[in-house]
């Protein structure tokens, strides 16, 4: 099969012919319909995670089941259209598997927190290929009418912001601000609006501001703020530092901030902002199967859309360079 391969850090991908993977009795083999490029893929390309190479990148694959392991639940069948979340293969024996369980599925480990899991496109081969191996514990059915190109960004970008909203634990009707309207931010705005929250979009790039204004009308933010514009910025708060620190200054007393990026240098927050407004900073990981299934339901019901640029597999060698274009809008798929 054809696959894009990361052979050396910070060098273009190479198109290789490699064997179609074989599956174990507990796995699914899927024919890839589409796969997205994410910021984490760029960090893998840079060598941030010391990923083993050569490897096939992308942890945002969707496709069609073509083979089912004989120990897999009968709910999974050849021909089903599915999305594959990043984490695979819980060991069922580490502390993460024992203690970090989904409250609604206490008899099953939450694969996200397994200490020995593998991660598609990060520690094992991912989705920039014709076929990939999937773990049914972290797969979701794709709703009818959601094209592969639209579904792919949901497997990480969507799954990340959906969990962030879930972790906010907001009461109905409260406002949600989204800083940075790219691939994740555009989905966060639509999800929040679809869940009934008032939304504010904040960015300093014309591409991000325009993307917010072009969202489906019923999911469009109530306010779009350019924080480089002095007059508009004063309606929120004066810019005062890096965006994660600045984000706390927008919040009122007892508010919650969920930073979803993963910068290698970590985050910086002002102690004064945290203490004097008694703020909460809450972590959020990519969605598990249950959360992703809820996300898919809202996507189908509300018509959530990503702005995507599609690239053929054979033309994807320069994906990391395309990703760093400052004028990029939405997602590369």
From TrEMBL:
The keyword Magnesium does not apply. Its cofactor is Zn(2+). One of its GO terms (molecular function) is metal ion binding. One of its GO terms (cellular component) is cytoplasm. Residues 10-328 form the Enoyl reductase (ER) domain. The keyword Ribosomal protein does not apply. Keywords: Metal-binding, Oxidoreductase, Zinc. It holds the Pfam family ADH_N. It comes from the Eukaryota. Belongs to the zinc-containing alcohol dehydrogenase family. This is Alcohol dehydrogenase GroES-like domain-containing protein.
